[in-house]
Amino acid sequence: MAVKDLSKQNRGKGATLKVPPPMFPNADDIVRQGLLEDQQHVDMVDILLVNPPSPDGDIWIRSQHRVGRRTRENMIWPQVSLAQMAALLHPTYSVKIVDAIAERMGWAEFTKILDKYQPRFYLTQVTAPTLENDMYGAFLAKARGAYTIAFGTHVTPIPKETLNSFPSLDFVLVGEPDLTIRDLMDYVDQKYDQRPENIKKLFAEHDPSYKPTLREADVPPDFSEIKGMAWRKNGEAVINLSRPFIHNLSDLPLPLHELLPLQKYRMPLIKGAFTFIVTSRGCPAACTYCIKHVSYQFSARIRTPENIMQELWLLKKLGINNIHMYADLFTVNREQVIGLCKLMIEQKINLRWTCNSRVDYVDEEMLTLMAQAGCWLISWGLESGNEQILKHARKGAYPEKAANSLSIARKVGIKNWGYFIIGLPGETETTIKETIAFSKKLPVDIALFHVAAPYPGTPFFFEVVKNGWFRPGTRWEQVDMDKGTVLDYPDLPAERLLYWQKEAFRQWAFRPEPIMTYLKMVVSDVSTIKSAVNVGIQHLTWSLGNAED
Question: β-strands 275-278, 47-51: how paired?
């Protein structure tokens, strides 16, 4: 019987070896044992990029750009940020992505994954409401000898505090993590000479002052020169120099979508799987509550329409026909949106897609072209019906513009998904009622009402700290826009905020028009019935929970 040779250079490449049953048990048992030992090495990877299990078995949303929360929409978010970083590391390093949320994986199964792949580096998503849960994964990986690394909008503004609170965490990637994780791994392994040309170009063009940190092989690592990172030096948490933003996002390699469980991602009222394409990063708006301030400040960087089309065709070949154009503000650059829509129409790519927008960043020509290119739904940040609250939050008060933009979208065949916030500074029960009335007047097909969340690093956070609006005994796990709040205003305590959040949804949803719209969406596509029913039951259960008489 021929036995496949597993040389050292093949280890860690993710190869799979099927061991044949022994023909001669006494002799082959020895060979089989050797093959199994080698198989264990074959499964080893350099880095495991992780969206860890949830704290409670629910579906949680995590993202590099956004915040963490349970989902009421029955939506499983694609982990494209992990696929993007994987593309920056491959092929120099062997990589594996584990999306425990999409796989509905608990900690017991996740621990077996760690034992199987034995990563040298462990990179995890971290969000405020899942902080201690996420750090448990880092603890498990550290116990197995891995370098442990965290990134995300929670750890970026408080890297020292995070490191001090969790000894099993080695590094925090501060801000945009893509180049920092590559730099860190290249420094540890001294593999600067193995960088592909496109990666060398990224480092050279986006930080002309950059020089690789070289060290002797036998000298212990000193991570002081790696920009965009926090770590421990002589036991003390330190923050290195910040890393410049990637100016031209089109220079990034296309994300390795094929490493993701693409068929597991779901969005309400679509047939089959969907995924994200990150079309831009950042937003020039100044909304005080927005987490984008933490990662991207006020920068706004876009990809070219041609570059986006390359990724769209890649996903089309992978069997994905539903896309969400994921951005802090998809319509941030009119020329880019118009150019992309024209290419999608010209090339007849035939995809259905969704996006987000502000009501003051669209016009009728743009919306018409978006609809022709396959856009069928836009999510709008509408937030409040009270102009003073909108002005105080620096959102900009555009009630009339909101009604106009949503009406145009509906006219050209695009559905409207409205997001509202209960509990921004200045909120009273009277202003909440104004928001409910405002939501009823708008042509909104789906509406969600969240409690305001003061995430670390946002201007809203510092306002809450200054005024003492944090609820006594606050823990980060309570920063949950649906099932808890850390806010406690003098005239609007946490309990009332949560009550009004549910009451707002009840008053909006239980009316003839939303019910009829909902039924029309179900009837129009039989494939959506299961999704629609699931979402409907989830919303109904949530909205009736703890309702006051």
Answer: unpaired
CATH of the domain at 216: 3.40.50
Give 139-145's long-range contacts (Cβ < 8 A, gap of 24+). 139/166, 139/168, 140/110, 140/111, 140/114, 141/48, 141/114, 141/168, 142/168, 142/169, 142/170, 143/168, 144/114, 144/115, 144/118, 145/118, 145/120
pLDDT of residue 70: 55
Q: Which domain holds residue 228?
A: 47-239
**282: alpha, beta or left? (left if phi > 0; alpha if psi -120 to 50):** left
Please, which residues have CB within 8 angstroms of residue 384's CB and are 6 or more apart in sequence? 390, 393, 395, 420, 421, 424, 427, 431, 434, 435, 438
Same-domain pairing of 274 and 197: no
Q: Which residues pair with 379 in a beta bridge?
A: 356, 417
Q: Please indicate, yes or no, whether residues 15 and 131 belong to a single structural domain of this protein.
A: no
- Please indicate, yes or no, whether residues 198 and 316 belong to a single structural domain of this protein: no
Q: Looking at the structure, do residues 398 and 466 belong to the same domain, yes or no?
A: yes
Do 37 and 60 sit in the same domain of this protein? no
Per-residue b/e over 533-545, b at no fewer than 16 CB within 10 Å?
eebbebbeebbee
Tell me if 60 sits within 8 A of 130, measured CB to CB. yes
Q: CA-CA distance, 238 to 93, in Å (whole number)?
A: 27
Q: Which tokens in the block code for residue 122?
A: 């462990």
Q: Answer whether residue 304 is part of any domain.
A: yes
Residue 253 lies in a domain: no
- CA–CA separation, 328 and 249 (whole Å): 14
Domain assignment present for 256: no
- The whole-angstrom separation of Cα 6 and Cα 44 is 13
Q: How many structural domains compose the chain?
A: 3
**pLDDT given for residue 456 in this prediction:** 81
> Where in 74-142 does DSSP place strands (E)?
95-99, 121-125
Q: Which residue has the higher pLDDT, 371 or 291?
A: 371
80-128: per-residue pLDDT in tens? 999 999 999 999 999 999 999 889 899 999 999 999 999 999 999 888 7
530 and 389 co-located in one domain:
yes
More confident residue, 195 or 41: 195
Phi, psi dihedral angles at 370 (to 5 degrees): -60, -45
**Cα–Cα distance, 124 to 120 (Å, whole number):** 13
258, part of any domain: no
For residues 423 and 501, membership in a common domain is answered with yes
Question: pLDDT tens digit string along 156-200?
Answer: 989 999 999 999 999 999 999 999 999 999 999 999 999 999 999
Same-domain status, 206 and 335: no
What pLDDT score was predicted for residue 334?
97
pLDDT at 478 over 90: no
